[in-house]
Write a structure and sequence with these properties.
The complex is a heterodimer of chains A (258) and B (157). Chain A is an all-alpha fold. Chain A is 87% helix and 0% strand. With 157 residues, chain B is of the alpha/beta class. The chains are: A mainly alpha (258), B alpha/beta (157).
Chain lengths: 258, 157
């Protein structure tokens, strides 16, 4: 019994310890951000790693998600003779929810895990302490550019996802199933609001970008410096980002679309 | 050096594509592309009940969109809803006895204003009022009336 209580207590303290360390780490990373502006090349290299290299999976997934939305939406709407509303269904689901959320989940899987593994391995091979030894702050040199790149890439990736998805839905609806082209776009433009839907979607993806990039770099920086530790940290990045994104999505949706 | 350059080009293209996607979302997907009728004149119509009519709803004649609703207000003196419409300048010869009614696209679709040209010689100009109007059909009221009349029939027998 007492052993069980001890374990519970250790777990609880461990949880709060990590939570606190994570937030202190975020503040230190934010404080190190100005240093990135001095070396924009580091940022560009990281934008390439987390943005450009994630583009392929984002575009392909966006296309298929949009096509599935077009197909499923059509099958449901055609019963009510409302297949002209297909554009609205596809665009609203993508811009409000699927674009930011699915892009963030893909981002965690493709870019977040790589960031964690990279930083974790740097720590395991003592490159980070080596930098400190040479009076180079690894937060400024390694963490901050990766964090900023993730934060900046996320809204762009989500927007690309949404646009590709809308065209995927258009291809299935208009191209294959014979929905009227004019009605598809005009109904969409009539119902999708720039502020309520598009801007709020962008705000969502900014928040998700912050959280995904933060979790990825923190898990890497905080990883146990062994091969097993890095592996665990990478898994944690994907799991925690997915949970955080989905949970935050609910909160943000409740706040935005009342 | 070449390596850095390709990376930079790729990042530039990525950022441009992302910003372009945001632009497409704003212009092509959302309602900002549906600009109001820029050049035109305003007509006013008074209705007892506008139903679910909304600002930006289309104004049509014979099924053709000629303008948009720009404002819906309520007049506390006459107890009527005042609908201001902006009509494209190309359609500037509506007779003064033109009538306006609030119609519904399909059974559950959105509501719009339908104009029906009359036979007068003189034409409506900017700010003129459309005299003959028909309010929106409120489905609940119609169903209520139908039920009452059915009940009355049943009671008579």
């Amino acid at each position: 019994m007492s052993a069980w209580l001890q374990r519970l207590g250790r777990r609880g303290f461990g949880f709060f310890e990590r939570l606190g360390r994570g937030h202190i780490f975020l503040l230190r990373t934010l404080a190190a951000l100005p240093a990135v502006l001095v070396r924009p090349r580091l940022l560009i290299a990281q934008l390439h790693a987390v943005g450009v290299l994630t583009l392929l999976i984002i575009v392909v997934s966006g296309l298929f998600v949009g096509m599935v939305l077009g197909l499923q939406g059509y099958n449901t709407l055609v019963d009510f003779g409302a297949e002209e509303s297909l554009g609205v269904v596809v665009a609203l689901s993508l811009v409000r929810e699927l674009g930011p959320v699915v892009a963030a989940l893909l981002f965690a899987g493709r870019a977040g895990s790589a960031l964690t593994a990279e930083i974790g391995l740097m720590k395991a091979t003592e490159q980070l302490s080596g930098m400190e030894m040479m009076a180079v702050d690894p937060l400024e040199r390694v963490v901050a550019p990766r964090f900023l790149a993730g934060f900046l890439a996320m809204p762009l990736l989500a927007a690309i996802f949404s646009v590709v998805g809308v065209y995927g839905g258009w291809f299935v609806g208009v191209g294959l199933l014979g929905v009227d082209d004019g009605a598809f776009w005009s109904q969409m433009q009539a119902r999708v609001d720039l502020y309520d839907d598009v801007y709020n979607g962008v705000i969502k993806s900014l928040v998700f970008g912050l959280v995904a990039a933060w979790i990825a770099v923190f898990e890497g920086y905080d990883a146990v410096p062994t091969s097993e530790g890095v592996g665990r940290a990478t898994t944690r990045t994907v799991v925690h980002t997915a949970l955080a994104v989905l949970g935050l999505d609910f909160v943000l949706t409740a706040l935005m679309f009342d | 050096m070449v390596q850095t350059r390709t990376v930079e080009i790729a990042v530039g293209a990525f950022v441009a594509a992302g910003l372009g996607a945001l632009f497409v979302l704003a212009m092509k997907v959302s309602n900002i592309g549906a600009f109001d009728v820029a050049e035109g004149y305003e007509l006013v119509a008074r209705f007892d009940n506008v139903g679910g009519l909304k600002v930006r709803a289309p104004v049509t004649v014979g099924g053709v969109r000629v303008g948009r609703v720009v404002a819906i207000d309520y007049d506390m003196d006459t107890y009527e809803a005042v609908v201001r419409m902006r009509i494209d300048r190309r359609y500037d010869r509506f007779p003064t006895d033109t009538s306006a009614s609030i119609l519904t696209a399909g059974l559950l679709g959105e509501q719009y204003v339908g104009l029906e040209p009359g036979g007068e010689e003189r034409y409506l100009g900017d700010g003129d009022r459309i005299r003959y109007t028909q309010s929106a059909l409120v489905l609940e009221k119609i169903i209520g009336q139908f039920l009452y009349s059915k009940a009355a029939e049943g009671g008579g027998k």
